[in-house]
Amino acid sequence: MKKTIIIGANHAGIAAANALLENYPEQEVTMIDKNSNLSYLGCGTALWVGRKIESYEQLFYTNKEEFEAKGANVYLETAVDQIDFYDKKVFCKASDGSHFCKNYDTLILATGSIPITPQIPGNTLENIHFLKKFQDGQIVDQLVGMASIRKVAVIGAGYIGVEIAEAIKRRGKDVLLFDGAPRSLSSYYDPDFTAEMDLNLSENGIELHFDEIANAYKGSEKVEAIVTNKGEYAVDLVINAIGFLPNNDLGKNHLELFGNGAYLVDEYQQTSDPSVYAVGDCATLYSNALGKTTYIALATNAVRSGIVAGHNVGGASLASIGVQGSNGISIFGLNMVSTGLSLEAAKKYQIEVLYTDYTDLQKPAFMNDNDSVSIRIVYEKGSRRIIGAQMSSRTDISMAIHLFSLAIQKSMTIDELKLLDLFFLPHFNQPYNYITMAALNAK
Question: Is 11 a catalytic residue?
Answer without folding.
Answer: yes
